[in-house]
Write a structure and sequence with these properties.
mainly beta; four-stranded antiparallel β-sheet; single chain; 206 residues
């Protein structure tokens, strides 16, 4: 598989990765670990870099990113059964280098860059009605950060604030309806990878 990665998501037994071709279009690949093979599947409707992807309810969503010189607010959903992408209602704000998360039955879009500033704003999509709504903003504007869900809460970790990488971490609890700062990372980090592992995880010794 060649090309710059734009976003990835796990669905079923396959790993889906969107890559960016600078000239014409974006490609999406499906990886089957049982055969150790990558397979190209249907193209996105719009080429986009610095977008993000998430799996939710048996479908894969790709949103935002940069298309030529335009920052996108468009959202596409992929159904593996029909091998096709469909445009759904766009986000309220254009976003690049942001985070998507499947959280509390909705798809959350957080932070990023709208071409003018690093965003703290958040919005969420109800996949059943196709309607986006505003959510409580994060306490810090950030792009190229990671968002994860852990024990029923949503975390925004690290990133870039427009001037430098940051170490700040904040979390959102549905019960409180707002974000609060928790213990920072030990080092400033931007564009990093992040995983949630079970307590009984045993690292592979090579």
């Amino acid at each position: 598989m060649n090309g710059k990665k734009c976003g990835s998501a796990l669905w079923g037994n396959h790993w889906y990765t969107v890559t960016n071709q600078i000239v014409s279009h974006s490609l999406l690949f499906s990886y089957d670990p049982s055969t150790d093979q990558w397979t190209a599947i249907a193209d996105l409707n719009y080429s986009r870099s610095d977008a993000t992807a998430v799996s939710h309810g048996g479908r894969i969503y790709v949103a935002g990113g940069v298309n030529d010189n335009t920052i996108e607010s468009s959202v596409e959903v992929y159904c593996p059964v029909g091998d096709r992408w469909q445009l759904v209602k766009a986000m309220a704000s254009p976003r690049a280098s942001f985070s998507l998360a499947s959280f509390d039955g909705r798809i959350w879009a957080m932070g990023g860059n709208d071409g003018e500033q690093r965003l703290s704003s958040c919005e969420s999509l109800d996949p059943l009605t196709g309607v986006w709504r505003s959510e409580a903003p994060m306490m810090n504007g950030r792009s190229t950060f990671k968002a994860i869900t852990f024990m029923g809460e949503l975390y925004a970790i690290g990133g870039y604030n427009g001037q430098s990488p940051i170490s700040t971490v904040e979390k959102y609890s549905p019960g409180s309806g707002h974000w609060r700062v928790v213990r920072h990372l030990r080092h400033d980090r931007s564009g990093m990878a992040l995983l949630v592992l079970p307590n009984d995880f045993l690292p592979l010794k090579i």
